[in-house]
Design goal:
Blueprint lengths: L1 E5 L4 H12 L3 E6 L2 H9 L3 E4 L5 H9 L3 E4 L9 H19 L5 E7 L27 H6 L7 E7 L2 E3 L6 H12 L2 E4 L5 E6 H14 L5 E4 L2 E5 H12 L3 E4 L4 H5 L3 H4 L8 H7 L8 H7 L4
Parallel strand pairs: 1-2, 1-4, 2-3, 4-5, 5-6, 6-10, 7-9, 8-12
Antiparallel strand pairs: 9-11
Helix pairs in contact: 1-7, 3-4, 6-8, 8-12
Length: 296
């Protein structure tokens, strides 16, 4: 199968493209620059020049493939609403190009802030629907095309997709700990993050491409919820720093933009995903990766 992958040179995208190539798929990877294109070609991925700001290039990639895995996103927290609108426009253009084809369209989404205080399940619909909502409401937009001749699948990744080389949320927390001289958590540290190792996430994406039914919400969560105080303690142990509680009223000043995520209780179940797709995570846990030096 020829698969068009946006974000093919990113953290999750690199693992996904390697997984697809290893299982005999022909991958067409979106590349914004000559350097990205060259890096993809070295990994046996055909480069397709374009960007999220060029919807026509995305449509051309979608039309040239048997399936699309959309993993790219403009992580611009200074204009997150604008990034969401750009995301919606990109998704809309690719879906319109695929309408009536019956081809799979897998869309990266997230498990953050879905059902605060309880574990999100695959039955929980995203509350984000409009262009100005989180990620432009692109998950609901994509799933609506199940009635328009596309096989849309939502890929809901845990807040931390961890492993050596991860530059996401936990890496940010490690940098803050170094700067502050302590690994902090907010309040009593009972807020939880779902987590998954990047290799397990990549394998799950491949399984979803093969077998997830139209409209299914895949939950890439190997660990249902890791308490924030345990994350801080593990970072502190590795970095040789104390783990300390940060009062909620001081969290924004201490952690900056990530306080909004780190202080939220956002566990997630993947029971239906495992049953449907036969997915059994085998990678290290988040705390194992921290202890092993993934964020050194």
């Amino acid at each position: 199968m020829r698969v068009f992958v946006t974000g093919a040179s990113g953290w999750i995208g690199s693992a996904v493209t390697d997984e697809l190539v290893a299982h005999g798929h022909d991958v067409l990877g979106l590349a914004r620059s000559d350097a990205s294109a060259a890096a993809l070609e070295k990994r046996n991925v055909t480069a397709h020049r374009g960007s999220l700001d060029d919807p026509d290039s995305l449509a051309a990639g979608a039309e040239a493939a048997d399936a699309v895995i959309h993993l790219a996103f403009k992580h611009d927290f200074s204009d997150y609403a604008g990034a969401g609108r750009a995301e919606r426009a990109a998704v809309q253009r690719m879906l319109d190009a695929m309408e009536g084809s019956g081809r799979p369209f897998l869309l990266a989404s997230g498990l953050a802030h879905l059902t605060p205080g309880r574990s999100a399940t695959e039955d929980d619909a995203s509350p984000h629907c409009t262009a100005d909502s989180v990620r432009g409401g692109s998950e609901n937009l994509a799933l609506s095309y199940a009635d328009r001749g596309v096989r849309p699948v939502a890929l809901r990744f845990a807040p931390t997709v961890h492993g050596t080389g991860d530059h996401g949320f936990v890496s940010v927390l490690a940098d803050i700990a170094r700067t502050r001289g302590a690994a902090g958590y907010i309040g009593d540290g009972s807020s939880r993050w779902a987590a998954v190792h990047v290799a397990d996430a990549a394998r799950l994406v491949r399984l979803a491409l093969d077998a997830a039914p139209p409209g299914f919400r895949v939950h890439a969560a190997a660990e249902e919820g890791v308490p924030s105080r345990d994350i801080a303690a593990a970072l502190g142990d590795f970095l040789g720093l104390p783990a300390v509680s940060v009062p909620p009223e001081e969290a924004a000043e201490h952690f900056g933009w990530i306080s909004h995520f780190f202080g939220a209780d956002q566990p997630a179940s993947s029971a239906r995903t495992r049953d449907l797709l036969g997915w059994t995570p085998t990678g290290p846990t988040l705390l194992d990766d921290i202890a092993a030096g993934a964020y050194k």
